[in-house]
Amino acid sequence: MHTYAGGMTAARRGLLLLLVLLGVPALASRPASANGAHPDARTYYSDSAGPYFVQVDLAPYTGIVHVAVFASEMGSGAAVTDLAVTVAARPEGEGWLEPPAPVAPLTARRVAAKEFGVDLVVEPAGLWTFTITLDGAPGTAAVEFEVPLTKQGSLAGMLLAFALIALVTLAVPTFLLRRYYRGLRERRSPPDFFDE
Quick check: pTM over 0.90? Predict the structure, then answer.
């Protein structure tokens, strides 16, 4: 087996290339965290709602959707100690094969002084309306906004399939040609009697 200048054999280089090709699509698909913010979370609402200033972040993917709600008093920006936050979701529009059931309101847990979080199971992909209800000493308020949810990992799955097809398409002929030419060299080279 031929060792290259770097000390790595051809088989090890091939294995390394395979791992890189399989690893890149895996990095493109980051799974949702069941108990925390998703790395692809975006702000879908950031404005006043009654006596509160509210910001809502979530990742636009189906499955377990972590909704992060940041709420404070409108004038002072102070945290509201007795604030209760509930989150619900319902499908919007038409064109559903089977209309999905709405997600019942769930109470968000306090994560920090001004931050609340809740995990909703939302399926299937499509347009969903999220309703955030805030209830505390300053008053009650509700926020609604629409989010187009998609299936996560569709692009990553296609990239992985493409990488595997490309690898097989390149590796199999290369392997067969190397074996063929190695066999030709062995059959054509005369025996070497002087290497003993």
Answer: no
